[in-house]
Amino acid sequence: MAKHIVCRFDELDVGKITPAKIGRTPIIVSKLPSGQVRAMGGRCPHQGAGLEHGCISGRTESEAPNELAFCDYGETLRCPWHGFEFSLIDGRSVVPGTGHLPMKLRLFDVEVEGDDVVVTI
Asked: Which of 33, 35, 42, 81 could form a disulfide with 74 if both were Cys (CB 3.0 to 4.6 A apart)?
């Protein structure tokens, strides 16, 4: 396992995707509303779309008909090709009932060391 500096911490904003490469491996980095930093593989597990072109938002949920609540702002990554949504917390699909699908984002260990964001691969 090797450590790689991929960007500076002050380059990260909540809701922003920061693309990087480690060798030939594309990754994306984002800061969560909690201040934690996540680094994940830069390709969608569905059909390989470049996730740097996706978007980070939240999700909606409902407890009753005709009511929607927006939640988990800044914690959901949406693929640009087919709209698959993944949690930036654990990498799993956020769509209910898809837990049986093997699709999950590849998450990497990431640390902030001084001003640098360091990813271990």
From this structure: 33
Write down the pTM of the prediction.
Answer: 0.87
Number of domains in the chain: 1
Q: Residue 10 — left, alpha, or beta (φ > 0 → left; ψ -120 to 50 → alpha)?
A: alpha
Which domain does 11 fall in, by range?
A: 3-120
Q: How far apart are CA 77 and CA 66, in angstroms?
A: 25
8 Å CB contact between 59 and 96:
no
The CATH number of the domain holding residue 111 is 2.102.10.10
User: Could you report the per-residue pLDDT of 74-102, keeping only the tens digit for each?
Assistant: 999 999 999 899 999 999 988 766 656 66
